Predict the 3D structure of the following.
Amino acid sequence: ACSSALEVANNPVSKYNPLYIYSKWSSGKTHLLQAIGNEAMKGASHKKAIYLSAENIISRFDKIIAEKSTSFWGKEKPPRFLLLDDFDTVASNKSSQKELLSLCTQFLESKRQLVVAASVPPNQIRNLLPQLRSRLEWGLITEIKTPDQKTKMKLVHQKTKQKGIQFQADATFFLASTTNDLKNLVHQIDKIKIHASLYGNNMDISIVQSILGNERSARINPEHIQDITAKYFGISPSDLLSRNRQRKISYPRQIAIFLTRKYTDLSLEEIGKAFGNKHHSSIIYSINSIEKDLKSKIEVIEDINKIRGFILNGVAL
């Protein structure tokens, strides 16, 4: 995946158009997309690259419909590179597929580089239009493989060094063995950094096991998270399992899904089942929405912190 990404960044449209990258959740798809854009624009002002998340894409589609427009770009000039993230999340909505087909077709026929990232290959996206699948399969489909132990140990070494924590070799090996989720691995290192002042910065395997053991003991099941979240917002737990899209229901549901991802070891598919058999793309969308809001919305930060406190401290509402 990395070699094809570099080829596309330096020689757009020459070989792989579109370039379709897929991998499991938190395996680095977004970072790779953004790296392609950054590399493409090095020293070349004419090589404009635009990165769009699922939320960005859906927002633009909604704007087209509201304004009765026929152009995805409006008055903007289409970029040389278009980087579409979480493609399967957008494509899971059948009403968006025709817009996606039009966008991809126009982009490819105008000899511009299209790069797409998703959690599954095109043939595993449910109910995907045959024409859209065909467009995506024109170029190269490549997978970001699950990181091996050596790669994870290298990441642990780099991140702990950056944070000024001295990790003994056995601790590095142990921590790298706990997960294949690189995002979660970095999260664990952040947790260990918080405790470093208590134990000293020289971490051996027993200290790391103790810290992670305490963290895991605080994790609970999705039913408890749903119950606490529902009571906090004054709704029923069954509302969180429904398909009701009203803000008063969808917002608490997104928070409960986000916290379930954070405080349980359930996969995206398992979380989907716990929330009324939701598709994993809906789970990804909910998590991404809350993560984005946590960067700028005070009320979301406050809600998350309060509910998290109730969950971790076992407080009954």
Summary: The chain has three domains: 2-143, 149-217, 222-313. The first strand starts at residue 19 and ends at 22. Strands lie at 19-22, 49-52, 81-84, 113-118, 140-143, 166-167, 202-203.
